[in-house]
Specification:
Blueprint (H helix, E strand, L loop, with lengths): L1 H25 L6 E6 L1 H4 L10 H18 L2 E5 L8 E4 H6 L4 E2 L10 H9 L3 E4 L6 E5 L12 E4 L5 E2 L2 E8 L15
Parallel strand pairs: 1-2, 1-6
Antiparallel strand pairs: 2-3, 3-5, 4-5, 6-9, 7-9, 8-9
Helix pairs in contact: 1-3, 3-5
Length: 187
């Protein structure tokens, strides 16, 4: 039991560090949308989709929500492929951003532990099929790219994993359009 508690504490500490480093790097603004895809199986060193952990998801979700609330950003938590990578959001987010809800409730075996944690902890959760997020956190190679606005820009921080899971971070920038005569603002 002590080993499990220690593992969960370590995951939470790593996660809080990742969130702070992402905040420092991504330049998120209030009102922007963040997509999070998370394989709790990969975090604990198992194959994606094979050992989902509600305990790990619960340890991750509350710091994520507090952090998003502090920044004033909206959250979308991606479900697994069994729900076609649908997303769990607050109904108020869906209404504000004009997302069309679909009818499904995630489970551990269809949706995954993190989407189940979002469903259980959001005030009024709904599932949606499509979004265009301004930034994303992908834990365990869950393929969040389909939910990011073009153009996705990878971000690097001082860590590359959460537990045993590979970590990818991204933000989106507007497309450059024009040609040789176009001018662009400096970033």
């Amino acid at each position: 039991m002590t080993d499990k508690k220690e593992m969960l504490r370590q995951i939470k500490d790593e996660w809080e560090h990742i969130l702070q480093a992402f905040e420092d790097t991504a330049g998120l603004k209030p009102g922007q949308l963040l997509v999070v895809g998370c394989s709790t199986s990969e975090i604990i060193g198992e194959k994606i989709g094979k050992a989902g952990s509600k305990e790990v998801a619960d340890v991750l979700f509350e710091p994520l929500r507090r952090w998003a609330d502090k920044l004033g950003i909206f959250l979308a938590v991606q479900c697994c492929e069994h729900l076609n990578r649908a997303l769990i959001v607050e109904r108020s987010t869906a209404d504000r951003l004009n997302f069309e809800p679909v009818v499904v409730i995630p489970s551990l075996s269809a949706g995954g532990a993190m989407s189940l944690a979002a469903w259980g902890n959001f005030f009024d959760p709904v599932a949606v099929e499509q979004i265009r997020a301004d930034a994303g956190i992908d834990i365990g190679d869950t393929l969040i790219g389909m939910h990011l606005r073009p153009v996705a820009v990878p971000l690097r921080i001082d860590v590359r994993n959460l537990g045993a899971a590979h970590l990818n971070l991204a933000k989106a920038r507007p497309k450059y359009v024009g040609g040789p005569r176009a001018a662009y603002p400096c970033d």
